[in-house]
Design brief:
The chain has twelve helices and 14 strands. Helix 1 packs across helix 6 and helix 6 packs across helix 12. It is 34% helix and 21% strand. It folds into two domains: 303 residues, 3-Layer(aba) Sandwich (Aminopeptidase); 111 residues, Alpha-Beta Plaits. The protein starts with a helix and ends with a helix. The chain has an eight-stranded mixed β-sheet with strand order 1-2-4-3-5-14-6-12. A four-stranded antiparallel β-sheet has the order 9-10-8-11. By secondary structure, it is α/β, with parallel strands linked by helices.
């Protein structure tokens, strides 16, 4: 029989849901948290709809709701969400002290799970029930860790002070949900924010105190609209959206780098056309840009928009851009790095403490860190080794579930240490 931390992770793993469709996941978490005595904020109390980027169509949302209910989610909790996933659990100790927040992302990746019989979730019967998605980034472990942290802190309530908030963030993949949660106001009174990501190439027992290299990013859907025509008889009557998109794609990748730091451009998909003998009248591109700093990302974004516009002009088509995700860079505060360094020395299972570790993608934990730091608070983003079996976002991704316990202990002890430090003031 699986131990509790593994049971939780495997239950979450089976019910993989992508960003803004995590209705079963949110209901599962809310039920657990309410049973522990937390006040649970759902829907527009947990996220700001005005900042919810890359949200699926209403039809897709409705389909996700039906699926969640068929999986056993409580309909009353889903009704309370009112179309928006994610949850914030609040524990008030009744004693003066700081407000501490811990963040855990909960969404899955649009990667079907490996059916290889040697892949443990497949072999042991907890592979994703969703044929279009899987927990190939470890967010199932994050959510399970969050539940266990909530349990430990609820049990230690009499030894804590101030207020504890536990954030279960939706839609991290594609950096679509962090800004919405930050803009909800739940962080505006937070003095300390802690978060952790499992894996990242670290071995079980390794802890990285600061994840460095987070890139700013902008995700855009670009649409070109032209005019269809017979490709043989009247090509001159057409306006070719496909050629505009191809011109754009090639020239986006020709944007000059910036002297101040790294840049990235990627055209992830390009869909166009309806038939062999028809001038394509519509093209859709999904693109992303990244920059090491905000001004570098802004430089690439400005150049990208110029390329998009002028590619349209060359072929006489119209164009539109839809922003579907964004994030910024952020750095852990030295004060918290030192505190967690001391804690890590005393946590069972920690074998090596790294001062920093590269995380050169993007993660919208950065929006939450910025929100807290911008109001005078402190934030830290940790790495927790997991002996992963494959790279993140690979269909064969799996991990050593004991990383959940190590992460739980590290975060709980850090929370207690913060309270103890406040009591000595």
């Amino acid at each position: 029989m699986a131990l509790e931390h593994a049971r939780l992770r495997r239950e979450l793993h089976m019910h993989a849901e992508t960003g803004w469709t995590e209705f079963w996941t949110t209901a599962f978490l809310a039920k657990e948290l309410k049973a522990l005595g937390y006040e649970v904020l759902l829907g527009e109390r947990a996220v700001n709809p005005a900042e919810a980027m890359g949200r699926p169509s209403e039809g897709e949302i409705e389909e996700a709701v039906r699926r969640a209910i068929s999986w056993g989610a409580d309909p009353s909790l889903i009704e309370e969400m009112n179309g928006y996933t994610g949850a914030v659990a609040v524990l008030r100790t009744g004693r003066p002290g700081p407000t501490l927040a811990l963040r855990f992302d909960v969404d899955a990746v649009e990667v079907p799970e490996s059916q290889d019989p040697n892949h443990r979730p497949t072999r042991e019967g907890f592979a994703s029930l969703n044929p279009k998605a899987s927990h190939a980034c470890g967010h199932d472990a994050h959510a399970a860790m969050g539940i266990l942290v909530a349990r430990e802190l609820a049990e230690a309530r009499e030894r804590l002070c101030g207020t504890v908030k536990i954030l279960f963030q939706p839609a991290e993949e594609g950096v679509r949900g962090g800004k919405a949660m930050a803009a909800s106001g739940v962080l505006d009174d937070v003095d300390y924010l802690l978060g952790a990501h499992v894996g990242l190439g670290l071995k079980l027992g390794q802890v990285a105190l600061s994840l460095k290299g987070l890139l700013c990013t902008t995700k855009m859907d670009v649409e070109y609209r032209g005019k269809a025509a017979h490709a043989g008889a009247e090509p001159n009557e057409g306006r070719n959206a496909l050629l505009a998109a191809c011109t754009c794609a090639l020239n986006l990748h020709a944007i000059a780098p910036h002297r101040d730091g790294a840049t990235r451009v990627n055209v992830g998909t390009l869909q166009a056309g309806t038939g062999r003998n028809v001038v394509p009248d519509r093209a859709l591109m999904r693109i992303e840009i990244r920059g090491e700093k905000e001004h570098i990302n802004a430089y690439v974004e400005e150049r990208a928009k110029s390329v998009i516009e002028h590619s349209a002009a060359m072929y006489g088509v119209s164009w539109s851009i839809k922003l579907v995700g964004s994030s910024v860079d952020a750095i852990s505060d030295p004060e918290l790095v030192e505190l967690v360094a001391e804690v890590a020395q005393e946590v069972e299972g920690v074998e090596e403490v790294l001062r920093e570790h590269p995380m050169t993608g993007s993660d919208d934990m950065a929006w939450l860190m910025r929100r807290v730091q911008g109001r005078g608070g402190k934030a830290i983003y940790l790495g927790v080794g997991a002996d992963q079996t494959a790279g993140h976002h690979n269909d064969a991704f799996d991990l050593n579930e004991d990383c959940i316990l190590l992460g739980r202990d590290l975060l709980v002890e850090a929370a207690k240490r913060i309270c103890a430090a406040h009591g000595r003031r």
